[in-house]
Specification:
single chain, 139 residues, 3-stranded antiparallel beta sheet, 15% helix, globular
Length: 139
């Protein structure tokens, strides 16, 4: 039933002559690339838990510290999961500092928790690569 509901929404947008809303993906600007050196991910660890529905959930927890001189409105990282042969099996971009919260101030740190429940079974069960994908500076 859930798939039909999503299809109905897509069809409704198509019939109305417009596209469904897209999530905004902000690329890493030159200014942000230069600032990455001031961000520190620490205490990063991975654990696996089981949900109430007996589904396996992999969680990555840690914290990000802003060692620079600018406040950050949002920070997203790209999590890249690999198989035993080094092939990418999942690439997911997730926020670790969200726009809806308070900015991450200079000298500040913030904990993050990233749950994943859709990792392919071919994943090698190793820590994924974590790469800063986007930084938006607070105004």
């Amino acid at each position: 039933m859930g798939n039909r509901f999503g299809l109905v929404i897509v069809l409704a947008f198509a019939l109305a002559g417009c596209a469904p809303p897209q999530t905004e993906v902000t690329p890493l600007t030159a200014e942000a690339k230069a600032y990455v050196q001031h961000l520190n991910l620490s205490g990063v660890q991975m654990k696996s838990t089981e949900s109430y529905l007996k589904q396996s959930i992999t969680e990555i927890e840690g914290s990000i510290e802003n060692q620079g001189d600018r406040a950050l409105e949002s920070v997203e990282i790209m999590c890249v999961f690999y198989d035993a042969y080094g092939q990418v099996v999942l690439r997911e971009r997730v926020p670790i500092v969200k726009r809806s919260g308070d900015p991450l101030k200079p000298g500040g740190a913030r904990a993050f928790r990233l749950p994943f429940d859709d990792i392919p079974s071919s994943w090698n069960n190793q820590m994924p690569s974590l790469v800063i994908a986007s930084i938006m500076f607070a105004r």
